[in-house]
């Protein structure tokens, strides 16, 4: 039998729980004809707050939460299909934060202050198809963030200040088809970064600081169709970055706005079905560009160019953008491609673009 003190304590607990429930209800509104929920300015999201009362919620949008998400915070939302988190500060996304949510299909995290995503954050999510995490500050992507996600086909980590991606970070995402890593601070593509991504179709690495692509980097992406390397710091590309068996499905390569002066004569050998390439805004050495364009012509590869009226500001807003590739020679008599990089010529090229911007 409970004594009077116990009864008083139970009443206090129930009252406290009631206050929490009233608090969250005051900050949340129903949406999409009752199947959605939008919560704003809730300090802490946890399983205790998101109790069984929200079991039938299908769409959930959290705005401006200010503390790390509780472990398995969404476990009671068994029917949740779409989860969006925007604004605020989470700091760390802990392991198992998104776990055992059988119907979850999409997670969208945008403009949240996040500094670390731990291993097994996305774990045991059989229906998850798309993860978008943008405008955050994590710098380092560790191996094993995605585990037992058999249907995940799209990952976007654009504009996240990523500097380094651990080898085999995506190896447990067997059906991944598109990977967006643009607008980060990556400097290197390591040979095992794309390990076991045999279904990858689209890889966007634009707007980074990539200067090195290691040999065999694309050995595990035989179905790659689009490779976007726009706006990086590449001075050379080695054909050995592609597998010896070739990349028979690769249709397009975008090399706009790098520091390339040449491509090795065998570069296209392992790309039998390449259909288009973007060469603009590189300081091509004239004999090398001539050789490249001959190869493109002989293999029916389309060389993309800019519309006459466009400087394509979204590609390189701070620089003039010629419609077609422009080359430079050290001497008028130069007619042999030497496959070497010249810092001097590269600087002359940049000055030339600025001096003659009005002609582009």
UniProtKB/TrEMBL annotation:
Keywords: Leucine-rich repeat, Repeat, Signal. GO terms for cellular component: extracellular space. Residues 1-26 form the signal peptide. Pfam families: LRR_5, LRR_8. This is Uncharacterized protein.
